[in-house]
Amino acid sequence: MAHPHPQEQEVKSPKISAYDAYFETVQSRKKLPGPLQENLTFAFSKVPVSAFQGVPGGKVIEIGADTCIADAVKVLSQHHILSAPVRNPEAEANADWSDKYLGIVDYSAILLWVLETCGLSPSVCSATAAGIGGAGAMGAIGAVALGVTGPAAVAGLTAAAVCSAVAGTALGKIGAAAEKGEGKDSPTGADNLTKDFDSIILQDEHFKSTTVRSILKSFRWAPFLPVGTDSSMLSVMLLLSKYRMRNVPVIEPGQPNIKNFITQSAVVHGLEGCKGMEWFDCIAAKPISDLGLPFMVSNEVISANINDPILEAFMKMRENEVGGLPVVEGTKKKIVGNVSISDIRYSLLQPELFSNFRNLSVKDFMSAISKNQGKAMSPITCNHQSSLGYVIETLASKSVHRIYVVDGEESQVVGVITLRDVISCFITEPPNHSDAYLGFAVKQIMKH
């Protein structure tokens, strides 16, 4: 992508300064031997983005900026994806990507919009009293949501690529790590809801009149920031970790269309596939405490008390730009569960929950979800003696974004390890790398 001009000197924005401070803190807490860290960083700098497998059919699903919210949900559901780039319908066909795309609409953002809209204007949600089995418009959206559990396809690393790079030999190819979630936790497939969706959701004036464009800025998790196919894996990993990008679009230089996405989950899935390689196994076998994990320690963990209002918990997620919180009880913060933004869909699916949402406690909300699923919502945890390999395998196999570190018989939450932290564990930022390769990215981030 575009490189910065050396003469351009800009004062860092508070956001960039916060990213720098976070990454410096992470690096100061890491305990990976210096030479090994340098070798890993060098290895990832030699893996090209172009080696990633493309999306099925070679075409990324896009959503027009003037698409109504209801239709946007339908597109995401039908294609089993959680996010999609938003296309500017006013842009010329041969326009540059910066004019062609306005951002990325994330399913979590839509859920938050629905929740806040209905929370501020109860009359908007009057449809909850009628409709599909009494669920109404909110219920239909929630039911469609249950069929959306993961992107259609994402790419990851093969062990051979990094191993051979670390060894100083020719680079191997990068393979695909598919992360498909076609309604695996859904009692009702999206296809079966098409008729109900069309007859109820699309007839609701509020959902027909509100466009993706109108919510894009308020609920944007991160700026739209593509990289070129000639970029390195190191640059992508820095964007996913240091700069908190959830996914990085890939664009071929000179071409206006998006070719692929690289996600945090994809990278961790790729690392999990490196099992059996000596360089990976020697790191993965170490207890997380020997590596400096968790980088986010006890007093930095944002949590929800089991007796807090559930609405307050969701607002904490939005304010802190996190996707989930541990649920704790007592002065020792014993972990008893977890709530995530995606859980909002359960409240939208069940009118008895939604009608009393503002008065619902975290405990009651978790109980209702457990009853709906037919099993308890057990938090995913590890302890300081758990290996990094166990953490990576757990994150990958359970398709979750965080694992909580607990201590003692009381299972006190003393830290959290996210996908972002795992990625940060394997890389550092070489001197001047930001100016040489990420100058464009930093400028874009400063604008948001």
TrEMBL record:
PROSITE patterns tied to this protein: CBS
Keywords: CBS domain, Repeat
Pfam families: CBS
Gene3D superfamilies associated with the record: CBS-domain
Family matches, as CDD domains: CBS_pair_SF
InterPro entries: AMPK_gamma/SDS23_families, CBS_dom, CBS_dom_sf
Repeat among keywords: yes
Chain ranges of the CBS domain: 296-355, 369-436
Protein name: SNF1-related protein kinase regulatory subunit gamma-1-like
